[in-house]
Amino acid sequence: MRHTHRSIRRRTAPGSNAPEAPGAAAGRMAGSADRQSAERPRGRPRLAVVVGNTITGDSRVQKTAIAAARAGWDVTLVGRSPSRRREESVLGPVRVIKVPVSAQLRAVVAAERRRPGVRSRLTQFGLPDDAAWVRARAAHAAWVREQTARVGWLGGPAPERPAPREPRAAALARQLAREALRGWVRARRYAHRGRGRAYRWERRKVAGATRPTGDWRTDWPELLDIDLAFGPVVEELEPDVIHANDHLMIAVGARSTARLRARGVPTRWLYDAHEYVRGVEWPDAVRAAAFPGVEEEFIGRADAVVTVSEELAGILREAYALPAEPLVVANAPVRETVSATAGECVRVRDVCGLSPDVPLLVYAGWIGPERGLDTAVEGLAELPHAHLALVAGKENATLQGLLARAEELGVRQRVHVVPYVPQEQVPDYLSSADLGLVCFRHVPNCEISLPTKAAEYLHAGLPMVTSGVRTLRNFVERTGVGEVFVTEDVRSFVAAVQRGLAKRSTLAARITEPLLRELSWEQQSAGLLDLYEQLAGPAATARLAPRGVPWSAAEQPGPGGPGRAASPAPAESGAAPSAWRSLGSTPVRLGLGCANSAGQLAGFARALCERRQDLSAEVVMHTHDQSVIYPADIYAIGERTGDLGFQLERAHRVLGSYTHYLADSFTPALGRLNGGHIQDDLPSLSAAGIKVALLAHGSDVRDPQRHMSRYEHSLFHAADEAVLTALTRKSARNRRAAAQSGLPQFVTTPDLLEELPGARWAPLVVDTASWASERPAMERSRPVVVHAPSKRWTKGTEKVVPVLEEMDRRGLIEFRMLTGAPWSEVRELVKGADVVVDQFAVGTYGTFACEGMAAGRPVIAFLDERLHRSVGIRPPIVNATPATLRGAVESLLEDRDSARRTAQESAEYVRTYHDGTYTADVLDGFLR
How confident is the model at residue 41 (pLDDT cuts 50, 70, 90)? Predict the structure, then answer.
């Protein structure tokens, strides 16, 4: 069941802390409470998960968001943008917002620190900055040169010149003047040197380490900048629960909750302490003071506290006199996903290029000095047959130092730096190693929690070799799943590795299923989900509607998430698709043109008008004598686009009416007034203040040469030379234009993200209601199989038809093919079929496949699954090539129940990604 809800947006002044008149907050709260039942949506309860990083790579917050979405929450994940602009994406059904953080408050505090005091007014008198000091030095040097020259002149004429007779009194006066000037120069030099020393001393004092003031707002004002950036975003969501991760977000959680409650929104919040803030070795004294300070100020205001270990829970409760023990939610792998991708996931041993008989030690995670990996590198010198794999992200100074030390010891060839993989693949990735390493040093945060990598090692089936840090040592000794060595003791490490390798089978046998269940995210997150429900209250949790969300969902482009907008009312069977709102006086007036490939512009217009009441649209379609006609507002025969009258008419319409324009397949907006490419019209559109975005579908940007080198059955192999040359030239120009334009870019199929790396996936749109069929699939004894290529050479038709015709002759299937038929005829054929056969020459699925899935039919096509996994989707399409097509059809015939399940999954998949709601959310950012 699809739940609908609307977003109530209220603007507040970012960061405003102005005092209110007495009773103002209470009055507003009462008024808001009276309106609450009418204003707040009655859909799923809302959860805002906020974190101070870019989200990418943070497995804990990603798994938190997905677990909540699976439980039925409407989840928004808010993180920090890696750029200077707001970025939006999706993680399955989770909306992801990344906000830029300015340095405004940092600049204010820095300016305050630079304000001169009494001492600096003396030490830097007349020298406000280094440039002034440089000028003063130059002026002093010039003065010294002039005065020392005068000293020379006062000394008398040159020796080779005869001196004129000079009265004795005059000579004495000249001598006295000379000595006085020399003394004055000497005094000025001493004074200048003293001034320079005082200036440089003051500059060193200013540039030196800032001393903490005891106020986190002054010591680390970036926390205020973070609140200014995150707070308004969180408050606009009006969540039922805010999950504030770590010390960077604690002020955001506390302040946003307070502001929302003042507006009558009953938000609750929890603080998730990932580490012991006081135990971190921060780079400077101000952070060491500020972060514990902000935690101490706000942790008592949290409605609940969560942390990662029993030990840290006890420390937090004692340190801050918390009324209850924090809930422990350890970070752990998702048990369900372990081995789920075993056949697809690369293994760390393969990446290292090692045979199964080579002992392989592995370390996965952050590499820093406190991780103690120098012990492992040193130990390799005493383990002549062992290799070490370091699973690392970006290379940092610590990793460089480890590799340099390995080079000195002569073991560099046995140290392998291998890349990260998605978090759900980590256990399978590590499983080909022999032992997992934890070499932590004795620092507080390493002592008091079980690291994530420990659970990952165990789910990978790896016994551990760990240093003697307290919590991990106790765990290993209690469970018997590894060996312990004396921290930072190389000989002890070597002995522990030797013991671990010798009895690896025994240690691995102790990694039992109950232990893995205990250390699984399913188990750990259960308590967190219960806590959410307790905080939100029964009225909110009654609206929870659990749904099937894959744990492996990956972050992918596009603002919003599937299912956010209201679903369109189902059309009656056989009814025409509902139209979009004709261009009118709405604030947003969108033009879409001019290819309208497979009716996609019509679908986009319809979806956007259903999504937004402030938008109207106009679809323009250029046609030729072989075009399949799809719904549009304006049709223009290709030749007419060259007529000056038509061009002027379009210029008047576009430049005088549109606020936004979606350029389809790089076609021009103004006929051919400026040229035959959208790039030619951009100056005119820009001058008219029209926002433009680019939309690509396939061969308009797909590189033929790369495609042919990748796929044996590429459609371009079947193209004649003239067509291939034209497509190569056209796609290269379009890719170049997209890269140079700086405009928002969208693609309708995931494979095109490789061609336009800056684009977002805006999925193909089909009218799911009009394609839905009441006839069940696969109930005929001789199923009807349909193939309807728009162009035979682009679908691999010539290789497909012989196989299907042969199966038809044998009486196994009834094969029907349509080419160039009207859209309505194709729809009725698909709705009456049992199996739909799409393309075998592209590597992705197209509109016809979506239409077949919308009809609830199994679809057979060739997919490059790697490209689709990259955006986190697994289309329920029967994957086949021309060589395996017969077997694919036969498998559907032999297992009718499985075929019907595929049909049902197909209909659900299309409703999730291709009914227009997902696409409308993706385009929403461009239309603001």
Answer: very low
Query: 812 Cβ partners below 8 Å, 6+ apart?
Result: 782, 889, 890, 893
Question: What pLDDT does 134 receive?
Answer: 85
- pLDDT of 393: 65
Packed helices 847-854 and 823-831: angle between N→C axes, nearest 10 degrees: 50
Burial profile 707-723: b = 16 or more Cβ within 10 angstroms, e = fewer: bbeebebbbbebbeeee
Ordered strands of the 360-364 beta sheet? 415-418, 387-391, 360-364, 435-438, 464-466, 482-484
**pLDDT (0 to 100) of residue 123:** 72
Q: Which of 716, 698, 721 is nearest to 848 (CA)?
A: 698
pLDDT, one tens digit per residue, over 782-798 is 999 999 887 777 788 88
Predicted pLDDT of residue 163:
60
Surface-to-core class of residue 836, CB atoms within 10 Å of its CB (0-12 exposed, 13-18 middle, 19+ buried): buried
Q: What is the pTM for the complete model shown?
A: 0.53
The Cα 799–Cα 817 span in angstroms is 14
Query: Do the beta carbons of residue 298 and residue 276 sit within 8 Å?
Result: no
Report long-range pairs for 109-113 (Cβ below 8 Å, ≥24 apart): 109/218, 109/221, 113/206, 113/210
Can you state the percent helix, strand and coil of the chain, rounding each to 5?
Answer: 50, 15, 40
Residue pair 481/503 in contact by the 8 Å Cβ criterion: no
Q: What are phi and psi of 481, to 5 degrees?
A: -100, 15
Give the confidence band of 20 by pLDDT, cuts at 50, 70, 90.
very low
Going 440 to 443 to 448 to 451, the CA torsion angle's sign is negative
Tokens linked to 290: 């500020």
- Do 852 and 830 contact (CB within 8 A), yes or no? yes
Q: Is the Cβ–Cβ distance between 77 and 95 less than 8 Å?
A: yes
pLDDT at 109: 63
Instruction: Output the 3-class SS for 804-852.
Output: HHHHHHCCCCEEEECCCCCHHHHHHHHHCCCEEECCCCCECCCHHHHHH
Residues 6+ apart with CB under 8 A from 917: 562, 563, 564, 565, 567, 607, 611
pLDDT at 678 over 60: yes
Q: Where are the alpha helices (DSSP H) in 503-586?
A: 504-509, 513-518, 521-536, 538-541
Rounded Cα–Cα distance for residues 858 and 838 (Å): 11
43-56 per-position pLDDT tens digit: 899 999 999 998 87
Which residue is associated with the tokens 């200077």? 84
Terminus-to-terminus CA distance in the chain, angstroms?
A: 30
306 neighbors 270 (Cβ within 8 angstroms): yes
